[in-house]
Amino acid sequence: MSSSSALQRLAAQFSRQMASSAGGGIGRKVAVLGAAGGIGQSLSMLMKMNQQVSHLSLYDIAGTPGVGADVSHINTRAQVKVRLTDAATRTAHDSPVCLRRPCNDGYL
Length: 108
Hints:
Elements: H1 3-21, E1 28-33, H2 38-49, E2 53-60, H3 66-72, E3 79-84, H4 87-94, H5 96-104
Parallel strand pairs: 1-2, 2-3
């Protein structure tokens, strides 16, 4: 079994589930985390082509806005928003001090 046919079957199943649970044609808001990766790019395109999706938000820390530009050119009703983190935010969250401090204070 090829991975593309498995992905197509999964997308078709997901689309049927969304269509059966949709009430009155209300669109779905979907967020794709890691949209610049190999799986994220394919998933973003599949979600953009899904008729039940009205808003598609793409998130990634890699800083590649080209994925959002590519997906936004697909002619569907879904609106695309690209959310990229900047280097300063990424560095602050990856800092060992930021990760250790809440644990030392007793917070998760």
